[in-house]
Design goal:
By secondary structure, the protein is of the alpha+beta class. About 45% of the residues lie in helices and about 20% in strands. It folds into 4 domains: about 160 residues, Calcium-transporting ATPase, cytoplasmic transduction domain A (Distorted Sandwich), CATH 2.70.150.10; about 280 residues, Calcium-transporting ATPase, transmembrane domain, CATH 1.20.1110; about 150 residues, Rossmann fold (3-Layer(aba) Sandwich); about 200 residues, 3-Layer(aba) Sandwich (Calcium-transporting ATPase, cytoplasmic domain N). Bound molecules: adenosine-5'-diphosphate and magnesium ion.
Length: about 900
C-alpha cells in the first residue's frame, strides 16, 4: 500500500502518531536516527589541502618558485629560503582569508534555512526544516516551500505548484481522500504534497511520510545540477581589471628588467628582481580580499538584523535610489487594535491597547455592552470569519496568525465572546489574499442552517452588498445608505485607521457554493476601524534615506486615506507629493505612470500585481529599486526589483527565495541600516583597492626610475616580497574594517555602472603612487651618492622609506576628501596593523640574523629623520588638495 492509497486515519496509525497531539518530543530523536536528517545530500566539498595548494597555482608565483629554486641551486641559499618562506606565509594568509569568507557564507546559509511549523506534544512549534521527522504533523500555508513529502490530512483550499517535480506549472488542488488506484504518478497524487514544491493558495495540515533522500525529490536530487558559485558584479569587474593590471604590471616589470640589463646589471639578478616585482605588483589577491570584505560586511549586517541572501546585494544596496516598502508590518508594528466600530449608523469607540483583552465599548461616553443591537452578532461573525488564534503566555496575550484577524478576536473578547466552535461548523473557507482583499467562510449551525460571512476591504464589500443591517433588522441598501457608510469609512481612514467591513448572507441547502454566488447580494453589517501604530524608528530612517538621496515610497493594500494619514505621520509625503490608488494605476499606461512616478510617494489599495508595474516604472526612470514583500504574489515584483527584500518573520518561503535581503525583524529601519552598511562596504573596498594599487605603482616606479637613471637596484627581491606580504597584507585588511566617513549617508547613491576607478580613484592611485616612488628614489639616491660603496645602506633606506610611505599613506586612503578630516585612532584595527608592520620592519632592520636575510643594516636617528620627512611627503602633500 502507498501513502496516497491509505485513509488519513490509517496513515496516522501506521506512523504511530495522533493527529491532535502530534509526535511526542521524546520520539523525535529516535525517528531522526532511524530516517536521518531531512536534507538532500550534497556533493562532497573540496579537501582542505587542495584549497591550500590552490593558493600557489598563480602563474607568476610558480615562476617565482622556479626562479628561487634555481637561485638555491646556484648557492644563494639564504635568498632562496627567505623567498620560499615568504611565499608560503602568503599562501597561508590567502588560505585563511578564503576559509573565513567561506565560513561566514555557510553561516549565512544556516540563518536563511527554512523553518517549518510542526505539532509536537500538542503544541505547534517552529523548527528548522531539516529537523522534521517522519510522522510529524505539519502545517502548510500559502507561500511555503514544502519541506518534506506530506500526506494531506486537512486542506483549506490548498493548491500546490509542482513544476519543480513534474514540470507542470499549473497549480494542483489538494484534498484528503485516499486514492484507491495503484501506480499513480506523483502529479496525480492529489492528496500528497511533495518536498520542494510550492503552496500557491490556501493552507493545509499533513503528516510527514518521507524526509531527506527518501522523498520523491530526493530520488531525483542526484539528477539536479550543482549550482555554480555566483560572483558579484564587483568581483567580475575586478577580475576583468585584474587581467589588465597583470598585463600592465608584467609590461612594466619587463621594462624594468630590460632597462636594467641594458644598463649593465647581470641578467640573472634582474630576472629574479623582475619576477619578485611582478609577484608583488600583480594584485592577484584582490578578488579574494574583496570577497572577505563583502562577507565581513555581511556579518555586520546580520548583527543589524539584515540577512543577505546574495552577496551581490551588498554592492547593489549601496546604489539603491528608491525603496518601495510595504506599509503594514514594515513601517508599522503590525499589531492591530480595533479602536472604533461603525454599526447601525453609529460610531462605537473601543478602549484597550494591543492584544490585551481588557477594554470596553462606548457610545458617546456611555459604556455599552453585548445588548447593543447587532453588536454581538457582528463580533461573532468577525470571530467566525477568522483564521487567527488568540493565546496567552505569562499573562500576555498574543496572536497566532494574521494580526488583522487577531484584532477581531480581541474585540470580541472585550464583550466576553470566545471562539467555541461546537455550535458552528465551517463548511468551506476562501482564505484572504491581497488580490481579492476579502475572506469568506460558509458556516453551518447546530440546526443545519447555513450562512456565509465575508469580511474585507469596505470598498470591495459595499458593491457586493444589497442589504444592510440596521437597528430594526435587514433593509435594502439604498444610495443614501451607501453614502452614509462611505462617509464613515472616510472618517475612520482619515484617523489612520485600517478599515474592515463585515457582511453576511443566509444560504439554503441547495445554494451553489462558488465564490461568485456566495460573495454577492450580501447584507452589510458594520465596519471595524483598527490602528496599527507606526514603528517608532521609521520616521528617522525615512529622513536619513532622504538625506542620502534615497526616496521612500509606501505601498499598501489599505484605503487611500488611511495610507495618506500614516504617510503624513511618518513625514514621508512632501507637500507636492502624490498618492495613487490601484484604480488610477489600472487606468494608467506604463508611459503615463513613468511620467508621474517621481512625484508619487504613496500607492494605496494596490494588489501585488501593481507592484511589478511600479518597479518597472521606477527602473525605466533609471532608478535602482529596493522592493519589499511578504506574500506569494509579491515574488514577481521582488524578483524584478534590483534589491528584493523579504520579511523574516511574516514572509513566505517563496518571497524569501526570490529576495536578496531578508529583514529578520520585518522593520523598515533595518533596510536603511543595510543600505548604510552596503555603502560602507563598498567604500572600504575602494579604500583598499586604492591603497594596494598605489603601493604597487610606487614599488614599480622606484625600480623603473632607478634603472632609467643607471642606478643599482634600490630594492632586492626579498625586500620587495616582504613589502608585498607585510605592508600590503594587514593594513589592507584593516581598511576593509574601517568605519564609514561621516557623510556616506549624505551622498547621492552611487551609480551601479560606475567603474572601479570612478570618482577620482584612478587619479588618487596614480598620483600617490608616483610620489611614493619618487620619494623612495630620492632617499635612495641621497644615501647612495654619499656612500656609493655601501649599497646595503642605501637599499635599507629605500626599503624603509617605501614601507613608511605606505604605512602613512594608508591613513590617507580612509578618506575621499582629505587625510586631515579623519581621526586616525578611529580605526584601531588599522592602528594595530600599522604598529605590527612597524615592529616587523624594525625586526628586519635591527635583528642581526635577519639583516643577512633581508640585506639590511643598522639605521641611525639621522637616517630616520630623513626617512620620516620623505615618507610623509606623499600623504602630507595631498592632504592639502581635495583631489
Ligand atoms: P497591506 O498592504 O496593508 O497588508 P492588504 O492587501 O493585506 O494590505 O489588505 C488590504 C485590505 O484588505 C485592508 O485594508 C483590509 O480592509 C482588508 N484585509 C486585510 N486583512 C484582511 C483579513 N485578514 N481578512 C479580511 N480582510 C482583510
Ligand atoms: Mg497584509
Amino acid at each position: 500500500m502507498k501513502w496516497y492509497q491509505l485513509d488519513v486515519d490509517q496513515v496516522a496509525e501506521k506512523l504511530n502518531v495522533t493527529m491532535d497531539n502530534g509526535l511526542p518530543v521524546k520520539q523525535v530523536a529516535d525517528r531522526r536516527k532511524k530516517f536521518g536528517a531531512n536534507v538532500l545530500e550534497e556533493e562532497k566539498s573540496t579537501p582542505r589541502w587542495l584549497l591550500f595548494l590552490k593558493q600557489f597555482q598563480d602563474f607568476m608565483v610558480i615562476v617565482l618558485l622556479a626562479a628561487t629554486l634555481i637561485a638555491g641551486l646556484l648557492g644563494e641559499f639564504v635568498d632562496a629560503i627567505a623567498i620560499m618562506v615568504i611565499v608560503l606565509v602568503n599562501g597561508f594568509i590567502g588560505y585563511f582569508q578564503e576559509q573565513k569568507a567561506e565560513k561566514s557564507l555557510a553561516k549565512l546559509k544556516e540563518l536563511s534555512a527554512p523553518i517549518a511549523t510542526v505539532l509536537r506534544d500538542r503544541e505547534w512549534i517552529k523548527v528548522p526544516s531539516q529537523e522534521i521527522v517522519v510522522g510529524d504533523v505539519i502545517r502548510l500555508s500559502s507561500g511555503d516551500r514544502i519541506p518534506a513529502d506530506v500526506r494531506i490530512i486537512k486542506s483549506i483550499g490548498m493548491e500546490a505548484e509542482e513544476s519543480a517535480l513534474t514540470g507542470e506549472s499549473l497549480p494542483v488542488m489538494k484534498h484528503t481522500n485516499g486514492i484507491s488506484r495503484d501506480h499513480v504518478d506523483p502529479q496525480d497524487q492529489s492528496n500528497m504534497a511533495f518536498m520542494g514544491t510550492l503552496i500557491t493558495r490556501g493552507s493545509a495540515t499533513g503528516i510527514v511520510v518521507g524526509t531527506g533522500m527518501n522523498t520523491v525529490m530526493g530520488q531525483i536530487a542526484s539528477l539536479m545540477v550543482k549550482t555554480k558559485k555566483i560572483t558579484t558584479p564587483l568581483e567580475n569587474k575586478l577580475a576583468e581589471l585584474g587581467k589588465i593590471l597583470i598585463f600592465v604590471a608584467l609590461a612594466l616589470t619587463a621594462l624594468v628588467v630590460v632597462v636594467g640589463v641594458y644598463q649593465g646589471h647581470p641578467v640573472y639578478n634582474m630576472f629574479l628582481a623582475g619576477v619578485s616585482l611582478a609577484v608583488a605588483a600583480i594584485p592577484e589577491g584582490l578578488p579574494a580580499i574583496v570577497t572577505v570584505a563583502l562577507s565581513l560586511g555581511v556579518q555586520r549586517m546580520i548583527r543589524k538584523k539584515a540577512i543577505v541572501r546574495k552577496l551581490s546585494a551588498v554592492e547593489t544596496l549601496g546604489c539603491a535610489s528608491v525603496i518601495c516598502s510595504d506599509k503594514t508590518g514594515t513601517m508599522t508594528e503590525n499589531q492591530m487594535t480595533v479602536k472604533e466600530i461603525y454599526l447601525n449608523g453609529k460610531h462605537l469607540y473601543v478602549t484597550g491597547d494591543g492584544y490585551d483583552i481588557r477594554g470596553d465599548y462606548f457610545l458617546n461616553k456611555t459604556k455599552v455592552n453585548e445588548t447593543f443591537p447587532n453588536l454581538q452578532s457582528m463580533l461573532l461573525y468577525g470571530m467566525l470569519c477568522n483564521h487567527a488564534e488568540l493565546h496567552v503566555k505569562k499573562g500576555k496575550y498574543y496572536v497566532d496568525g494574521d494580526p488583522t484577524d487577531g484584532a477581531l478576536l480581541v474585540a470580541a473578547r472585550k464583550i466576553g465572546l470566545k471562539p467555541e466552535h461546537n455550535e458552528y461548523r465551517i463548511v468551506k473557507e476562501i482564505p484572504f489574499d491581497s488580490d481579492r482583499k476579502r475572506m469568506s467562510v460558509i458556516i453551518e449551525d447546530n440546526n443545519k442552517r447555513r450562512f456565509v460571512v465575508t469580511k474585507g476591504a469596505p470598498d470591495v464589500l459595499l458593491p457586493r452588498s444589497s442589504f444592510f443591517m440596521g437597528e430594526d433588522g435587514r433593509k435594502l441598501l439604498k444610495k443614501e445608505d451607501k453614502s452614509h457608510i462611505d462617509h464613515a469609512i472616510n472618517q475612520m481612514a482619515e484617523k489612520a485607521l485600517r478599515t474592515i467591513a463585515i457582511a453576511m448572507k443566509p444560504l439554503s441547502k441547495q445554494d451553489a457554493l462558488d465564490t461568485t454566488f456566495i460573495e454577492n447580494d450580501l447584507t452589510f453589517i458594520g465596519l471595524y476601524g483598527m490602528i496599527d501604530p507606526p514603528r517608532k524608528e521609521v520616521r528617522a530612517a525615512i529622513a536619513e534615506c532622504r538625506n542620502a538621496g534615497i526616496k521612500t515610497v509606501m505601498i499598501t493594500g489599505d484605503h487611500v486615506k488611511t495610507a495618506r494619514a500614516i504617510a503624513e505621520n511618518l513625514q514621508l509625503l512632501p507637500e507636492n507629493g502624490l498618492v495613487l490608488d490601484g484604480n488610477q494605476l489600472n487606468q494608467m499606461s506604463t508611459d503615463e505612470l513613468r511620467e508621474v512616478i517621481d512625484q508619487v510617494y504613496v500607492f494605496a489599495r494596490v494588489t501585488p500585481e501593481h507592484k511589478l508595474k511600479i518597479v518597472n516604472a521606477f527602473q525605466e526612470k533609471g532608478h535602482i529599486v529596493a522592493m519589499t514583500g511578504d506574500g506569494v504574489n509579491d515574488a514577481p515584483a521582488i524578483k524584478a526589483s534590483d534589491i528584493g527584500i523579504s520579511m523574516g518573520q511574516s514572509g513566505t518561503d517563496v518571497t524569501k527565495e526570490a529576495s536578496s535581503l531578508v529583514l529578520m525583524d520585518d522593520n523598515f529601519a533595518t533596510i536603511k541600516a543595510a543600505i548604510n552598511e552596503g555603502r560602507n562596504i563598498y567604500e572600504n573596498i575602494r579604500k583598499f583597492i586604492r591603497y594596494l594599487l598605489a603601493s604597487n605603482v610606487g614599488e614599480i616606479l622606484v625600480m623603473l626610475f632607478a634603472m632609467l637613471l643607471a642606478l643599482p637596484l634600490p630594492l632586492v627581491p626579498v625586500q620587495i616580497l616582504w613589502v608585498n606580504l607585510v605592508t600590503d597584507g594587514l593594513p589592507a585588511m584593516a581598511l576593509g574594517l574601517d568605519k564609514p566617513e561621516e557623510d556616506v549617508m549624505r551622498r547621492a547613491p552611487r551609480s551601479p555602472r560606475e567603474g572601479v576607478f570612478a570618482r577620482g580613484l584612478g587619479f588618487k592611485i596614480v598620483s600617490r603612487g608616483i610620489v611614493i616612488g619618487l620619494v623612495t628614489l630620492l632617499a635612495f639616491m641621497l644615501t647612495y651618492q654619499n656612500d656609493p660603496d655601501n649599497l646595503v645602506y642605501g637599499q635599507t633606506i629605500a626599503f624603509t622609506t617605501l614601507v613608511m610611505a605606505q604605512l602613512i599613506h594608508v591613513f590617507d586612503c580612509r578618506s575621499e576628501h582629505s587625510v586631515f578630516t579623519r581621526n586616525p585612532f578611529e580605526n584601531m584595527y588599522l592602528v594595530l596593523a600599522v604598529i605590527s608592520s612597524l615592529l616587523l620592519l624594525l625586526v628586519v632592520i635591527y635583528f642581526e640574523p635577519l639583516q643577512v636575510v633581508f640585506h639590511t643594516t643598522f639605521l641611525s636617528l639621522r637616517d630616520w629623520l630623513l626617512i620620516i620627512v620623505f615618507s610623509s611627503l606623499p600623504t602630507v602633500l595631498f592632504g592639502f588638495t581635495k583631489k
